[in-house]
Each structure stands twice: as structure tokens, then as C-alpha cells.
Amino acid sequence: MPDNGRVTSSDVPRRDGAPETAALRPRLPSPVEEVMDERFGRRGVRLLLKRDDLIHPELIGNKWRKLAPNLDAAAGRTLLTFGGAYSNHLRATAAAGRLLGLDTVGVVRGQELADRPLNPSLARCVSDGMRLHFIDRSTYRRAAEPEVLAGILRAADAEDACAVPEGGSNSLAVRGCRALGEELRGRADVVAVACGTGGTLAGLAAGLAPGQRALGVAVLKGDFLDRETAALQTLAFGGRRGSWTVDTRFHFGGYARTTGELEDFARDFEERHALPVERLYVAKLLYGLVALAEEGAFPPGSRLAAVVTGAPFLPLRDPRTAPRAGGQAVSR
Fold first, then answer.
1. Which pLDDT does position 104 carry in this prediction?
2. Is 292:247 a contact under the CB 8 Å cutoff?
């Protein structure tokens, strides 16, 4: 997806009615909490949780950090963005639109979904005022091409919209996530985060101090995140920044996929630490960190910070009121 330009939110000219993301009252910096867990303790590792899930009740974690500069850059224009059927990013964008009075369009991967009842995630998007536009998977994969993007904007009746890529990962988002690393300077030796598109990892690594290392735990299949993270850093900062690696072993079958083993692990972690564990990102991150600790990946005396980027999704209370894909809020 083409980048929206190398600007910061302070560079963006405002006009009457442009969103003021500060009005959403985020809790920044998010707190850091140490938890006692013998799976790390017996290896001499201290486990810290960076509670980005507490930044905002609806724009949670890295979604706030990535969306806020893009919302400011939109300057009141419609925000159009991309995601799959279970995209946390689409839900966060829709919620931001509702809270700020901003029109939003979600381009959803999978034309075949257009005539089906909406799943709980997409239903929440529509209930928050987002207009959905379904496209086939081949076109979705090519959405970064300027002519393909232009066609999508026309088909979605959103030619004047501010386009934000899948996961919200562009140069603005990466620079927004740099603050996450800055908030953790001196607090940990290794900072780990779950990765979908690489944007949060790219910013996090750039914000850490020399001697600190960022670790990305991939939640999708494939070996593309090293390349994508490096490309995003180049787009945002002109080149690679900080020290970071990606571990691709803990995706549990791919995005939005879980297993009984992962579910059991998440419930156990919740019981141990009274922390609601989001399954698509955070559970995979924590599972991976336990496995890595058992492998001796963190030297004794290490301080390991895990970024809690989200909270469990709560569907609409009454599923009978959920909109269907054929409703007025949906375009094909």
C-alpha cells in the first residue's frame, strides 16, 4: 500500500472539524507491571508486561499508536483501510471513526463474504458506522499497486479518502510506535511483541536504547516479516534502526487460527496472573516467550518485557441485532 507521505502529525495542516486524537484521552505512557511466573523465574528471567491494552478501552494497544498519527493526517477526510474478516485493525478504525465523527471504509479481503452474515468482528465494524467494501483475494494482494488502489477507491466510492494499509502499517504508524520503545528505555533487555505486518516491531526497535533488543513473534505463516519490517523502517527512517529479530514458530496455523493447546495455555496464564489474554496475538506471544525461556534464549538476569497489544474481543451482546453483509452499510 502506498505510503501517505513522510510527515508527522505536527506537520499536518488542520481544518475545522479535523479530529483531535488527544480528545480520546489515551493513557500514555502505558504502565509496566512485573509478574512472578516460575517458568521464567527458574531461568533467572524477570517478566514484565507493558500494558498497552490499557491505553484506551476501544483503541487498544498498538492500534492507538498506529492509528493516531493517521487520524491526524486524515484531517477530517474519510479514512479507508484494509483487513481480513477478523481484523482488529478494522475494528479499531471503525471505533475511532465513531468516537471522532469520522467516516470510515473497510476494504475486506474475500469477495465471497459479501453475501454471508457478518461475523462478530465485522458486525462490530458496521455497528460503529464503518462501510464495508468486499474485494476478491487476488485484487487484495495487489492493493499496493497505485492503479489497483485507485480502482479500489473508485469502486468503494471513496476517491477522496485517506488510504491506510492493512494493519495500519505505514511510515506514520511506524513513527508513532517509536514511542513504545522510548517508553521502555532502561526498563528491559529484550522487548517482545506479536507481529502481523511488522509496523509495531519496526517502530519499537527504533525507539529502544542501544543495548536493548526487540523480538517479534509472528502470528502469521511465512518468512516475510523480516523483509517487511526492514522496508517499513527504511520508509519511516531512511534505513534500518535498532536491534531486532523475528521468530516465526508460534503462529499456530496462521492468522486468526488457534488450537486447543494455545487455548489451554491462555486460560492458564489468565488464572496465574488475572490478566485477560487476547488469543490472536497476545496468547501466541506469551506462549512463544515461555517456549523460548525453556530453550534458554534469555540469559539469567535478563529483564524480558512482553507488550500486551490487545484485550479479548467481546462481540455484540445480542447477535440477533448484528447486521448482515447485504445491508446498507456494505458495498460490493
1. 98
2. yes
User: Residue 182: is it exposed, middle or buried by C-beta count within 10 angstroms (0-12/13-18/19+)?
Assistant: middle
Local structure of residue 19 (DSSP, 8 states):
-
Spatial distance between the Cα atoms of 67 and 65, rounded to a whole number of angstroms = 6
Pairing mode of beta strands 131-135, 104-109: parallel
CA distance 309 to 203: 14
pLDDT at residue 87 tops 50:
yes
Whether the Cβ atoms of residue 167 and residue 89 lie closer than 8 Å to each other: yes
The pLDDT of 129-138, averaged and rounded, is 98
Distances (CA, A) of 77 to 15, 19, 24, 176: 10, 9, 18, 20
DSSP states along 55-93: S-SSS-THHHHHHHHHHHHHTTS-EEEEE-TT-HHHHHH
Query: Are β-strands 131-135 and 213-218 bridged in parallel, bridged antiparallel, or unpaired?
Result: unpaired
